[in-house]
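ok so for the tutorial part 2 we go from a plain amino acid sequence to predicted structure tokens. step 1 is just haveing the sequence, like this:
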Amino acid sequence: MRKKTKSVIFLFFILAGVIIFLGSQSLALFGVGTTIAEKNESKVAAAPESVTEGSEKDTPAQIPAGPGIQEPFPGGSGGDGISGRHDDLVRRFSFLQSPIPGATVSTRDSHLPGAPRPYRNGIHEGLDYYSSFCGVPVNFGDSVYAAGEGVIYRIDHVYSEPAAPQRDEMLRQSIAAGNMPEAVLDKLRGRQVWIVHAYDVVTRYAHLHEVSEQLQVGDRVEAGTFIGTVGNSGTSSGAEGSQDGAHLHFEIRLGEGYLGEGMDPEAVRLLLQQILDR
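step 2 — the prediction. this is what the tokens look like for a chain of 278 residues:
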């Protein structure tokens, strides 16, 4: 009899425990109390965000990124062709400055981007700085400086001037073919320095006589860093060994295009003046 009583009492306590457990789960199910999942969620919500900082060597990819230019090169002709985008272009390229101190945008249309180049069956893609047309003397051997902060992407420490007959033959073949291969055009630019800037902008400095011995590909430069000297490499005068026709050819590029592409001389001159002549 005592054994039966003990068994009944034991079963009673087990049953009571099951009832209490099920009751607590029902309360949680109907929103009473705090479940384990809710506790975990509250911990996640309260956890602070972690920030990892590190430093890497400067490369073109590490240049401070800008918002980019969705429509970088306005098409069409006439001043109205850049209406609504002119100010945006000025603002986005305004970190650049003249690569020759005191020099202004040329007064000659033939020195501007977009000017025809019949002798090579092509189009001029940069801005030329010549004496008598840019406000200051520009002589063979004058200093050229970086137009803005960036990273050296190309610098021609080693350069071989094409002989006059070789240069003439390259031009003849290009005119006969009806187009100017990029490899030939690159030869005609002579000794060069290319700098990659923010906003995926690249500036090119061409026809140089010498380049800075202190700079190498991957070096970071500031606006105003000395990069080379004015020359006439790649030109007919350079091929002949004279110093005639010395000037700086300066390009502002984004992707496959150049700033001023598709614009008339008046519009591109105004744009470049507002960017560089400050």
